[in-house]
Every structure is written in C-alpha cells, then in structure tokens.
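Annotators were shown the component list below and the corresponding predicted structure, then asked to write short factual statements about the assembly.
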Amino acid sequence: MLVTEDTKISIERLREDLKQLAEIGRGEDGGLYRMAFTAADMEGKAWLEQKMKDAGLETCRDGACNVIGKLAGKVADAPSLVIGSHIDTVPCAGILDGTLGVLSGLECLRALKEAGRVPEMPVELIAFSDEEGRFGGMFGSQAFAGQVTPDTVHNAVDPGGLKLADTMQELGLDPWDALQARRDPASIAAYLELHIEQGPVLSQMQEQVGVVEAITGLFKWTVKFHGEPNHAGTTPMPMRRDAFMGVADFAHELPRILDENGSETSRATIGRVELAPGSPNTVPGEARFSLDVRDTDETVMNELAAAIRKALAAVARRRRLSFSYDAESWIHPVDCDAALVDIVEDAARSAGMRYRRMESGAAHDAQIMATVCPVAMIFVPSKDGKSHSPAEWTAWDDIEAGAQVMLGAIERYAFAGA
Ligand code: HGY
Ligand code: MN
Ligand code: MN
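Structure shown to annotators:
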C-alpha cells in the first residue's frame, strides 16, 4: 500500500475556513441556524462552492442541491472515491457538526492539488443537503443514493408544516430535479466521512481518533394525542381529556420501554412538543410531539416501535384520548466496510495517533451511502461529549490529527495503484 508522508494538511487554512463558515447563519445566542434550504444554508453552499473553485476543483450542484467538488483522477471515468458530510445544521447548533467533515475534505484535496498529486480515480467532495432532517430524512444523500421518490418530494414537510417542495421552489429550485440526483452506484467506489463524535468516549479516553465500525439506525415519528380543549378553571381534573397529560404519561413510560425492549445502544428522545390551542387557561385539546428512537440493531428498533405503539394506545385509553402518528423516517443501522475500516485504522496507526474502533450513536450520511458503496468514518473527539449546541467543540490539534488521518486514508485508497 503506497503511502507518502509528504502530503500534509494545513491546519491554518482549515481553521480559517471553519471561522468563515461559522459566521454564516450565526444567531444572536451564538448558535448556528443554517437549517436546510434556509437563506443561510444557501449562502453557505455558495461560499463552499467558491472555496472549491478556489482550490481548483471542478464544481457542480445536483438536483438535490448537493454541492460537489471533484479532483480529477488519472483514469477519468473510474468510479470515484466520494468524501463529504453536510453543512446544514440543527437550530442553535455548534460550528463543527458536518462542517468539519466537509472542510477537512476540502483541505485534503487542496493539499493534494498543491503537492501536484493526481489520484488514480476521481475524488469527489460532497456537502449533502438536509442531513439534519429538517424535512424528515437525509434528503441529499438519499437523493444521491436513489432513495428519493415522488412521495418524498411531494409530502416532505418541516416541523412547522412548510413543504420541502414549496421551500425549494421559493429558492428557484425544482424539487423534482431531486429525482435525477441519483448517482449510478457503478460510478462510486467508496465513501469516507470525517465527523465529530458528538459523544463522550474519545474525550474521556483521551484518544484522538475514532475508527467507526458501525452506525446506529433511527426512526422519527410525529405523534399526536387528541383530547378536548376546555376551561382551565371550571373543568374538574377527573373530567379532563388533557392531551398534554398524555405526552407526560408517555414520556414517563420511555425508560421502562427501553429497559424491557431495548439494548445498551437504545436511545429515545422527545425533542419538540406543541400544544393546541396553547393558551394558559385552556386545557390542551391537542398535543403534537417528535419522537427520535435509535439502536444499532434493526430487530431492536422494530421491537421498540411495537412497544411504543402499545404504550401510546394504553396512555390514550387511560386519558380518554385518541392518538395518531406519522412515521417521518426509518434509517437502517449499518456496518462500515471492513477493508475501508482497516485503511482508516492503518492511517491512524501510521500517523502515531491514539485511536479506538467504535460505534456511532449519531446518524450520518455515511449510512445512506452504505446502501450503494463501501463506507467508513473517522471521528474526532467532542469536548465533554457535547454537540447540537454552541458548546460543541474539538481541540485544534485533534482537528488537525483527524484531517491528517483523512488525508492518509484518501492516499491509501485513491493512490493505491500509483
Ligand atoms: O441526529 C443525528 O444523529 C445527526 O446529527 N443528524
Ligand atoms: Mn452531522
Ligand atoms: Mn447533527
């Protein structure tokens, strides 16, 4: 396996890129608000595209508005090594989730270009649209992997009820073009993604790099309890059909449901609750809430879904409510490709990194790409395990270490024939 140690990433350039992109979509509270297909997200895409051009990459956007930069290979029509992640964020996000993978990938390709090194195959850097699932799933990578259907394009909505199709049209995009974003799997050799761990393991173990072997699956539901709005003063407690109390009762059932049906990698989160009519002196007649449930084993995911449906029905009966739910997305857990994981591990070991093999509790575009090609991921530590908040951080020397391992993995994979 040919490895030249002379190609080094520049942490100064990477730091400058991170600082610049961190200013796009920054809110008053210091968090990032670059949610998918907002003006800030589109500004971030434009900024990134220009950076790719400045780096001498051939750029384009596909029908899902994925931003793509290509480093040409010696064999022009060989299947590409694809690297990337996302630059869209959750509301009030940190500056590294997704972004670090895209900008580290950009720095790797810039370093290779600067060193005049030409890979055997094209290497394509992609910033996938809507990884955070504002519109339900991982729209950009799902479109790239051919998983988007007219149903997705027509019915995907965000938590506020805005339709994906309308949102794209208002940006001058044709949502139906997403159906043409599918890339022929024969043109993709493999996918590599660098990402922050978003958990506590690497930082607690004082390790620099995570060599990811498996990625958790998840399903997202929007659940509704329907009761009866009524006067907060004149309606005796036993006579109420209080939809919020349904949510409260169900939330207290979650630990039991996970204990009885889950595993140590099971997670369940209610991240958003909306009550109607929403006035302080009215018993809520309707409650609508999000449910995010995860496990690395799909059988366990199915068992958790069945147990959750039973618990919702029991709570509804007890509270004289009715309930319904929309299954927003179901993303399969995946194993990373053993040979690609070995390449990442070899790059980490040769660079003298303290590393460990581990699983991902967060979902990533890599698990969508795993449906069409071999994938592997590189993690860098998250300070105090924090993420999806402005407290999200990774020490600069860990960022440099991770990006250098990424470059080492690219060199091992895309220059193998050299
Ligand atoms: O939710 C996740 O795991 C990822 O950050 N989208
Ligand atoms: Mn992410
Ligand atoms: Mn995220």
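Statements collected:
1. The radius of gyration is 23 Å.
2. The pocket of manganese (II) ion (ligand 2) is lined by residues 86, 97-98, 131, 195, 364 (CB under 6 Å).
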